[in-house]
Amino acid sequence: MKLLTFRRRGEGISRIGALTLQGEVVDLSSAHTSYLHEKEEASSKHLAITSLPSDMAEFIRGGQASLKAAEMALTYVQEKKDQKMTLGPNVEKWVMSQEEVEFLPPILHPGKMISAGMNYQEHLADSGSDAPEMPVAFSKFYSSLVGHHGKIYYTDQTTTLDYEIELAFVIGKKGKYIKRDEAMDYVYGYTIFNDVSERTLQFREMKQGLLLGGKNMDTFGPLGPWIVTKDEIEDPHNLRMILKVNGEIRQDSNTKYMMFHICDQIAYWSSLMSLHPGDLFATGTPSGVALGRKPHPELYYLKPGDRIEASIEGLGILMNQVVREPKDK
């Protein structure tokens, strides 16, 4: 199943949706409420909110109950579509085209987001770093996240603005001291992440032994377009990943080149801290970033107007555009 967080255009309310095989967006809560109403089940609105919350992390915590309710809603919608009925009891559309919705980050407020660094051998040459002996990472804040088609802000402080395509995975259940051979049981699904970075600030910080601002400015975390549940991905360690800027391929690699696999990362980090449903992990980027394009990386850093397409096999395409930060921000 492909799950997303969205807003209907013109509304301020975030909703949970699922993608149909035709690429349309189903409002799961609205459809499930209508299903319960039609079946004349008591307190249908309450039951729908309980089974299908508007927050993705809560949806994930619901486990199989949430997925079963979502599948029920999708089946119900398809039946009504076959009957050419698209309005629920509150005159809300159950099914919308992607153009009718605003994509939000699939998880709006992850409890934690751990971003792997130096996890592709080929990327180490970009920064001149040695291979780490254990998984290493930095934190990303949810205030940096934007969704599919979201804008990436260019400011006076971002003259060396860079891109990094990454496979991200979502934790599905709570755990600590997770064994490596059991780690994949804790994965809920996968999505695409672009670890936007301000290189000048990043390396100024790293000289002091820390890293925060260069990775966490507003809009530095494009995420999406949706979460693909793990049952749809046969092998997350064999997925082609491509990033284009204005149609030009900048990164072209495969997740099989990760040094520390997903199970390694879960086992290591869960030995230090508890993992919770909705926690996000970004697994690192391959080579091809602007930083590594010697001798003139300045020709490849992102500028206002640049359009970025990050695609990972089986997960879709995450598209964003660089714009100057609005003055009234």
**Radius of gyration from CA coordinates:** 20 Å
The assigned CATH architecture of the largest domain is Alpha-Beta Complex
CATH superfamily descriptor of the largest domain: Fumarylacetoacetase-like, C-terminal domain
The geometry reads as: globular
Mean pLDDT: 92
Distance N to C terminus: 36 Å
Q: Could you please say which CATH topology of the largest domain applies here?
A: Fumarylacetoacetate hydrolase, domain 2
> What is the level 1 CATH name of the largest domain?
Alpha Beta
Low-confidence stretches: none
Query: Helical percent range?
Result: 10-25%
* Beta content: 25-35%
Number of helical elements:
8
Describe the protein's architecture and organization.
The protein is of the alpha+beta class and 329 residues long. It has two domains: 2-103, Roll (SH3 type barrels); 105-324, Fumarylacetoacetate hydrolase, domain 2 (Alpha-Beta Complex), CATH 3.90.850.10. The protein contains eight helices and 19 strands. It has helices at 28-38, 44-51, 56-61, 63-82, 121-127, 199-207, 213-216, 262-270; strands at residues 2-8, 15-19, 25-27, 95-96, 101-104, 113-117, 136-139, 145-146, 151-154, 161-162, 165-171, 187-194, 197-198, 221-229, 240-245, 248-254, 280-282, 307-312, 316-324. The strands form three sheets. Strands 1, 2, 3, 4, 5, 6, 7, 8, 11, 12, 14 and 17 form a twelve-stranded mixed β-sheet that branches. A five-stranded mixed β-sheet has the order 9-19-18-15-16, with no helix packed on it. A hairpin with a 5-residue loop joins strand 2 (15-19) and strand 3 (25-27). The longest helix has 20 residues, at 63-82. It starts with a strand and ends in a 5-residue tail after the last strand. 45% of the residues are buried.
